[in-house]
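Field reference: sequence -> structure
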Amino acid sequence: MDLRRACFAGASLSLAGWVALFALAAIGCSSKTLQYPADHERMQRIDKVVESLRDAYQKKNHSAFRALLAPSDDLESLQQQVKADFEAFHAISLEFKVERIIIEGDSVDVYVHWQGVWKKHADDAGMRQRGHARLQWTGTQSILLRGVQGDLPFGMKTKQALSEILPPKPTPR
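Structure field:
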């Protein structure tokens, strides 16, 4: 009987020891300051601007979308495709998952996996699509989209029209 009490007392002491250790670790970790606050702030701005682009597109806010673009003739086609999407679809639901961010000076590349649903009217089940894209940004304080590559979520009206025009591939016999 005394042996059981001794084992139980030892176990409760080690449990108390673990609790104390975790409490000290939590206090020690919470008091750390950021080692690179400027880089942290920039990453937060990048995250915010990517979210703003997604939000402007999903809410079909053309002026907010256009405000995130750097002045460039290369993005004129993107603006036209986005405008066509806004006219063609009643509702757009889009999700971005950032896979990685590469920063080289003023240039920022954000690689995203996206998925979304484009509905022509309220009762429509919608067209589901997904893909990967590279969003090329520029700037440090004010960050603007300067280019895009890959399978973009923008321009779904054009993609849908092309898929309806192209006949299915014949199956070999």
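Note: The first strand starts at residue 91 and ends at 104.
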